[in-house]
Design brief:
Strand order of the largest sheet: 2-3-4-6-7-8-9-11-12-13-14-19-20-21-22-23
Shape: globular
Strand content: over 45%
Number of helices: 1
């Protein structure tokens, strides 16, 4: 019996020893290191390195709420418009031996009073060095218009500041803050209409745009020109004509007043290119819409519309988070025909507060006036209309 117990104890001890040796021989596997998200300060705040790549990504979002007073002229017109809009997008960048490779997308969804809008693609472009292709801010625009209302709402149809257009372009950087851009743009984004029985034909040529931009310590300068085709849908509207537009403007910084304060002004002129001097779809003032046009049908063919506008504003920062702006615009639209002209002007004031970074609370009030002379080419006239409109905006960017 003692012999059996000794054998059993010895066997158990041997198994324990062997098991211990085996465990020691195999070793203990260490947990893999956690790959934390790394920031990408090269391109500014909000960018992070995409794991496993050398690219950087920034997620983009915005929520906007607007409450708009329209000064209705009839009982059927809406006095107020309520708007909620949500933006989503991203900015993806990669450094390459040829320069920066960038992909940018931003779209929004909108609910206005009584209706949901379809999703709208604002921007979707690729940049590769100096090459830019996709949906972008037009090369013609300076982008200084800081007021909340669009051209067709507050600015009475005058002064172009179109946000986006389909384009292919190249930017040459000369150094010292100066650059030049040459672009071919989708003409359908810029078409207005043809008056007196005419309609546009199919596109044959893209809009060609050339711009020079200067960014200096004292301010900014913008010079731009565009050439476009105005073509009728059939022979009764005449052969196609080449229209053109140009703009010149300057923005001056006013640090002697306060940081961020500035003043800007611009002038635009066009023939057969009304969307370069004011908004597509015309401006609605006092529930009355002016029908703008690129050309008019005559017995001799197409007669191109002449249009021009001047605009400007001054912005003063009381503190780094509180600013006020005062601006205005004046323009003239002159299609072919005796006395068939329209003029309009607007004066607008704005007060804005940014209590925390990325959050804006602002309000605006604008006085608008429109005067037309002539007959069917524009509207029954002469007529003068004016109104006062206002807006309150809440906006959060992240």
């Amino acid at each position: 019996m003692k012999l059996v117990k000794s054998l059993l104890l010895g066997s158990a001890a041997g198994l324990v020893a062997v098991a211990g040796a085996s465990a020691a021989d195999l070793g203990v596997k260490k947990p893999s290191a956690v790959e934390y998200v790394k920031t990408c300060p090269t391109y500014g705040a909000g960018f992070f390195v995409v794991p496993g790549t050398t690219s950087c990504l920034k997620l983009i979002g915005r929520v906007r709420a607007d409450y708009i007073y329209n000064n209705p002229q009839t009982r059927a017109a809406q006095a107020f418009r309520w708007r909620a809009r949500g933006y989503v997008g991203y900015d993806h960048r990669t450094a390459t031996e040829y320069g920066l490779l960038r992909t940018y997308v931003r779209a929004f969804f909108n609910h206005d009073t009584g209706a949901d809008s379809t999703p709208t693609l604002e921007y979707a472009f690729i940049q590769f060095g100096g090459l830019t292709v996709g949906r972008v801010t037009p090369a013609f625009e300076h982008g200084w218009l800081q007021f909340y209302g669009t051209s067709g709402q507050y600015w009475g149809g005058y002064h172009s500041d179109i946000t986006y257009v389909n384009s292919i372009g190249y930017t040459f950087n000369f150094g010292g803050g100066w650059s030049a851009t040459v672009a071919l743009e989708d003409p359908m984004n810029r078409r207005s209409t043809i008056l007196i029985g005419g309609t546009y034909g199919g596109q044959r040529l893209p809009d060609a745009t050339f711009a020079i931009t200067g960014n200096q310590s004292w301010g900014e300068v913008k010079l731009a020109a565009a050439v476009r085709e105005v073509i009728g849908s059939n022979s009764t509207t005449g052969d196609s004509e080449l229209g053109y537009a140009f703009t010149a403007g300057a923005k001056i910084f006013l640090p002697m007043l306060s940081k961020g304060s500035n003043i800007w002004a611009s002038f635009s002129y066009g023939r057969g290119a009304t969307s370069y001097t004011h908004a597509l779809g015309a401006g609605t003032i006092a529930d009355r819409t002016l029908t703008v046009a690129d050309a008019t049908v005559t017995a001799a063919g197409l007669k191109l519309t002449t249009s021009w506008s001047v605009a400007g504003a001054v912005q003063y920062f009381f503190t780094p988070t509180v600013s006020a702006s005062l601006g205005g615009a004046y323009g003239r639209h002159d299609p072919f025909g005796g006395g068939n002209t329209a003029t309009t002007y607007v004066v607008a004031g704005q007060l804005a507060w940014t209590p925390v970074a990325g959050f804006l609370i602002g309000t605006e009030v604008a006085y608008r006036h429109i005067s037309t002379k002539g007959t069917t080419s524009i509207d029954a006239g002469p007529i003068d209309n004016q109104d006062v409109v206002g807006r309150i905006r809440f906006q959060r960017d992240f």
